Amino acid sequence: MPDNRPSGTYRVQVRPDFPLHITAELVDYLADLGVSHLYSAPLLTAAPGSEHGYDVVDHSSVNPALGGADGLLRLSRALKAAGLGLVVDIVPNHAGIAVPHLNPTWWDVLRRGQKSDFAHFYDIDWSRGRLLVPVLADAPDALDDLRAEDGELRYFDKRFPIADGTGDGTPREIHDRQHYELVNWTRGDTELNYRRFFAITDLAGLRVDDPEVFDATHAEILRWYREGIAQGIRVDHPDGLRDPAGYFARLREAAPDAWIVVEKILEPGERLPAWPVDGSTGYDAMCLLNGVFVDTGTEAFFDTLDHHLTGVTTSWQDLVHQAKYTVATGCLAAELTRLADLAPTVEDAPRALAELAACFPVYRSYLPAGSRYLAQARSEAGRRRPHLISALDQLTARLRNPADELAIRFQQFTGAVMAKGVEDNAFYRWTRFVARNEVGSDPARFGTTPDEFHEAALERQQDWPGSMTALATHDTKRGEDVRARLAVLAEVPGDWTEVVRRWTRFAPLPDPSLAHLIWQVTVGAWPISRERLQAYAQKAAREAGTGTCWLNPDESFETAVRQMVDRIYDDPALHREVADFAASITPPGWSNSLGQKLLQLTMPGVPDVYQGTELWDHSLVDPDNRRPVDFAERRALLNRIDDGWLPPVDATGAAKLLVTGRVLRLRRQRPELFGSYRPVYAEGRAGHHVVAFDRGGVVAVATRLPIGLSRHGSWGDTSLSLDGHSWTEVFTNTSYGGNRLPVAELLHTYPVALLVKE
User: Fold this and answer.
1) Cα separation of 127 and 592, whole Å?
2) Residue 93 phi, psi (nearest 5)
3) Among 136, 202, 541, 614, fewest CB within 10 Å belongs to which?
4) Whole-angstrom distance, CA of residue 599 vs CA of residue 285
5) What are the CA-CA distances from residue 553 to residues 186, 318, 574 (Å)?
6) pLDDT per residue over 546-577, tens digit each?
């Protein structure tokens, strides 16, 4: 890999209400903050009103809603003037089809069917007849609302093409002659004959394994690379691709010097395949960073509390299996049917394939690599469903073969099953300690020991030094500082047990597991407005799917959820108690926040700062984490810091801005200080409250388990052994020397320190 990595990136959610010309106005602030690259949300033309850009409808142009080509040029000039680069987010797996007439390739496929020049662009199973388009209302006479107007078929505000020579007759007669069939929207999950992104029928799977499709969908992006507009590429959702390894080889050949990172969600212990990329987008680092601030010794307390609140004992593994099997046979039934059709001679093929997917321990394999995961799934599936052993054996014999169409599509299937079953369901149902319910984490692993952290960091330094490190993304379930504060609960299990048991009795909910989730989120994000908490609680309830769901909301259950949340705000005693408890865990949460931010910014890899998180960020799941950011406030605070202000650790969050800016600037100015990794261990009675490492001239020091530390009374004799050189602490600009440095002196002002060898 070329050494082309940024020193640090800053993610900006460029969107219609924050377009490219406004993004360009941020560049001077980002340069002052210390990043080397702006990291943008997708910029190609997306569906009207898209707030995220992952539903591209035209790969040949910059989204006019973001400012178009002129807007991108303006941003590029601003970046170059400031000496910054650009990392762009791209979406090779799927395209937006919600508004067919705005996607020229999809429109042509609808109009001409298999004879379209773009029929091979999309992953369509034409053997099953006409292309099914699930847009009709759930009514037997929905087609009666079709109209033939201006050479098109219209269904309310939706437009569809009419094939040449088929426009005579009634709208129904015209419809019946088309290459597509408009069907009830509920049939999308069961009968669809085109691949989609997860269970979203408005996102159709692309065949970028076809060189012509690759060229057409990447021409504009690669032009940005060739012309020096973009220097880095973030690749969205590679698990949906038919041939990820081939795709990345082609992308690297086309952009040999680009910094390429891939949105690959790795399960704990899983390693990134040996693709020609610089690394992942950092969910694996996020898992480590949050986990090392969790007291692993209190897991049993939370097991007991969870059992008391819910009345049941369910393992994470069993819950995940149940959720994944339900997804595989439910909202992904169309994909399962397409798989089973490839094994017509295998009795019980649909159930056996669903069972294998439910037991698959990672998102997907990349055959021939990862075949051991198939063996694990086969073993577990046989244990759970012994009556399917014959079918399982027949299927796994084929699923091992990288050239078998069944094996290729099964790899695409398991990632969708994992994402929908775990991230969008099980995370909302298994709620014993939701600080660990995060993308890339295993909630069954209560925390991370310092030794485990160091081991993983050493591996990153050796294998993927250019990989991104992250603490928040637009896909995380909770903001980084919510997770940091929730980690404090592991240090006060008795206090938490007492209050949450009382609150659940005072403001009950029919689903006690969901109630425990909402109470944890409430204290983790407090103070939070009623409107934001209500929106979160409703989404959590529908994702959990136990009392209500997205397709058929249960009004009585959702009313109970709203009443529970309302009571937090309307009952003075409860409101005061929630506020008081949140206040009690907020200062140690600040300590955790600064610690995990320092480690993220200094550990091996390329640190990314998600927009706004240089101050405290108590966002929740999207769309909450896409709210506008007050950049004027951040500019003003950064200017005060640069004028010599040493901010306290308080509600302003300026201490976090101090840490973020000082580390990012150091990484940009002196990258040679970050070329190696060595764990540093503190000695003394409170040594286990320190996590520290030497990057080759820079030593990062963070406090962990701050409440436990306070019970010690002080750092006492705890010290760090250094090499006798003189050191400067970056945040306070204090000099230190000698072989042993007292931690109490080093961490007198902040719970973190960054030492630079003089």
Assistant:
1) 56
2) -80, -35
3) 202
4) 10
5) 15, 26, 28
6) 999 998 999 999 999 999 999 999 999 999 99
